[in-house]
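Running this now, will post back.
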Amino acid sequence: MNIKRRLIILTFIIILVALSIFLIEKSKPSSSPQNNVLKDGIYPKSPELVGIEGYINTKEGLSIESLKGKVVLIDFWTYTCINCLRTLPYLTSWDKKYSDKGLVIIGVHTPEFNFEKKYENVLNAVKENNIEYPIVQDNSYATWNAFRNRYWPRKYLIDKDGYIKYDHAGEGAYKETEMKIQELLKETGESITEIPEPEELKLSDFILFPRTPELYAGYDFSLTRGQNIGNKEGLQPENTIDYSLPENLEKDIIYLEGKWKSNQDDLQAFSDASIYLKFTGSEANIVIGEMSDKQEIEILIDNVSKKILINEPKLYNIYNGKHGTYLLQIKVKSGFNFNAFTFG
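Update: finished.
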């Protein structure tokens, strides 16, 4: 084969590879909520609120389209998520400072656990956290998927023309977010000169020390994340097992004692029972779902005891103090269930 023919074949192969790469990239979904309409070639058009099943602090039919001319902050949250709860004081503060300037905050409540789908439970959480801005229930994840969201919490800022100008996943970036709110409000013609510049983030806004990761109890959550319990029997989906405690307990792993049933969403006690966990952090919380009767549980942190009344499905704080590694024991009675532990 002569050199000229080789060059022709090589050129053809290069063109074919380049075309293949182009077609593959073109077929990939955009990470933006929508990729068909862009403002200034950068900012995507906001999706609409879809599949909403409940409305709190607002009338049914609330839409982003109806809010054109205003600045809209969409906050994806769920009421037992500790990261979401930590952001709520900032959101309620922004609502008070900027609602009369044209900011509309919409909390899109997308549940992680089944009991978080219940309207009354969300309503109680809204009242408990003094939320006055609109909350909509996205139980089927329709709006979550329309935004292509993957995180709790996540905030999207939508400008007066309906385009997403900013988004942030997780905690933090509070000053950055508020500065963007002010910038977008100025674009509407509002004067915010009398509102002081947001304060700098405090040291406490950052996670400076190691901590135990979030741990799930329901097998649909825990096993898919490689979070089996530490007992030799392990989780056995839909079965009730009488667990005994091993001699040695490893860190960041849940251990059970007594009869427990492994459910999709939670672990449920069928006798007087205990939970053991060596955790690291300065804060520990437990997510507890709906039970037939209220129950008083005993919390022991390194054998220091206190009791907590469980009377509604929500996140309960069980430790808040000096950062360190501690042995947690929770003594419960039959009928108790829990969904997850979170730490700070």
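Confidence is low (pLDDT under 50) at residues 17-31. More later if anyone needs it.
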